[in-house]
Amino acid sequence: MPRKHQVETAFGAITIKNLKQLEILNVNLLPVKYPSKFYTEVTDVYHRTSTFVVGAVCARVEDANAEKNTNKRLYIMTLGVLSPYRGHGIGTKLLNFLIEALSSTDVKQIYLHVQVNNTEAIEFYKRHGFEIVGTETDYYKKITPADSHILQKTL
Fold first, then answer.
1. Does the UniProt entry include the keyword DNA damage (predicted)?
2. What kind of architecture, by CATH, is found in domain 10-154?
3. Please, are residues 125 and 116 in contact by the beta-carbon 8 Å criterion?
4. pTM to 2 decimals?
């Protein structure tokens, strides 16, 4: 398969001026609809071309689980790239941005949920060192299939 041409992109912070673009991006990429509160309470990074947002990642750091004796971990709530911009390494750049940001923290694990039939996302995360560590039945309430794999990577 020939490599797609290089797309010039840049990282940027989510601001009040581009928050709506993030919401539109997520509506077009993800089967789950997030409430407005989601967009004001998460740590966001987006990836854009010179004119508009083409990919974004939203994540949160969670407290350690004393019962399981784990360190703090990062939960990836959303990570997506618009279809025409896939294959250019943008998703990898977004994921690597998160991992690099964690290098100076005590976060030792990243995890996320992926719908069981989303093979493209599952393969993406596996290529980046994530493993399926479990499956949650009926995780999603308004989409089919409702089951979700839990993918995890230890740093």
1. no
2. 3-Layer(aba) Sandwich (3.40)
3. no
4. 0.75
113 given a catalytic annotation: yes
Distance CA 94, CA 120 (A): 16
Query: Catalytic residue among 39, 75, 128, 140, which?
Result: 75
Interstrand relation of 109-115 and 43-48 (parallel, antiparallel or unpaired): unpaired
Alpha-carbon distances, residue 23 vs 54, 60, 87 (angstroms): 12, 17, 22
28-76 pLDDT tens trace: 887 778 777 777 665 455 556 556 788 888 898 898 665 666 678 999 9
Q: Which residues contact 86 (CB under 8 A, 6 or more apart)?
A: none
Residue 85: CA count within 13 A, CB half-sphere: 21
Which is the catalytic residue, given 47, 88, 113, 149?
113
Quote the CA–CA distance of 154 and 130 in Å, as a whole number. Answer: 8
